[in-house]
Amino acid sequence: MCTKRQDGQVGLVRNDVTSRGGVGEQRCTDRLQVAKNTIQRLALSHAVADLPVQGHEDPPLVGKQRCTAYVRWVVERRLFPEFLETYTKAVGSLKVGNPTLVDNPGDALPDLAFGPVINSRQAEDLDRLFDNASKTGAIPFLQGKLDDGLFLPGQDRSAYRAPRALVGLPRQAELYFKEPFGPIDSVVLVDRVEELVGEMNISNGALVTALGSDDEKWANRTAKELRAFKVGINKLRSRGDREEVFGGLGESWKGAFVGGKLLVEAVTQGAPSQPVLGNYPDAVLLPEKA
User: What whole-number distance in Å separates Cα of residue 161 and Cα of residue 123?
Assistant: First the structure.
């Protein structure tokens, strides 16, 4: 994530610790079922980048271009094999194609995860970031392919990219700090709580983040150290509906927060004693709940 990163990220651990010594000292008996469910939901953020309600089944075809899409995973090292199995299964099921491709005018639109990115230049920039990460030492573990059957014969596909993912990004990789705005995920492996928190705070502020763990008390305690406006515990956080408060911390957001009455307060003149809540250079005025 870059210094102005706005996207989301995920931390996944399995633990039963009461100190900050390690991320996981004892194995749990549920075989990471809570975290697996979290992975399956969050991996689908390739398509469902901004869920207004839980269980949304009509995702916008945004290709992880929403500012609240989850693109960075911080995973406990010993969980990576299980994470990899669940992640590749979930992301491998996503379909990328022409969102208007039908046989007849009255047919329903195709059931796709997402369509093109904003333009071909953005797609080329995704290729550049992926290649740069690979050349600097990151290991690609997922490189999806476009399905010919989901496009018109001879269709220009220059703005389409299938999901890709890398693990072990070095700090010299541009993608380590930069938001991709497209279907590229990066995975960072950690061994200690301090590493987890540090990696999840690498951008000095985020709009949304999520923490997946089968120890919910630990997760709630650790979530207080994460610099994100919204933190989900074993669930997605997103923009929400128009009434829900929205903003960011650190470099992810500058100015007044919005959502519901805060949007009205941000664009109207209120009483002198009524502060406009937001993230400003000299102060951060937070709403009671975010």
Answer: 7
Q: Please name which of 68, 27, 57 lies closest in space to residue 209, comparing C-alpha atoms.
A: 68
Buried b (16+ CB within 10 A) or exposed e, 78-104: ebbebbbebbbebbeebbbbbeebeee
SS3 per-residue string spanning the chain: CCCCCCCEEEEECCCCCCCCCCCCCCCCCCCCHHHHHHHHHHHHHHCCCCCCCCCCCCCCCCCCCCCCCEEEEEEEHHHHHHHHHHHHHHHHCCCECCCCCCCCCCCCCCCCCECCCCCHHHHHHHHHHHHHHHHCCCEEEEECCCCHHHCCCCCCCCCCCCCEEEECCCCCCHHHHCCCCCCEEEEEEECCHHHHHHHHCCCCCEEEEEEECCCHHHHHHHHCCCCEEEEEECCCCCCCCCCCCECCCHHHCCEECECCHHHHHHHCCCCCCCCCCEEECCEEECCCCC
* pLDDT tens readout for residues 181-197: 889 999 999 999 999 99
How far is residue 26 from each of residues 2, 82, 258, measured CA to CA in Å? 35, 16, 42
Where, residue-wise, is CATH 3.40.309.10 in the chain? 8-241
pTM of the predicted model as reported, rounded to 2 decimal places: 0.70
* Phi, psi dihedrals of residue 213, rounded to the nearest 5°: -155, 155
* CATH class of the domain whose range is 8-241: alpha beta
Over the stretch 76-89, which tens digit does the pLDDT of each residue have? 999 999 999 999 98
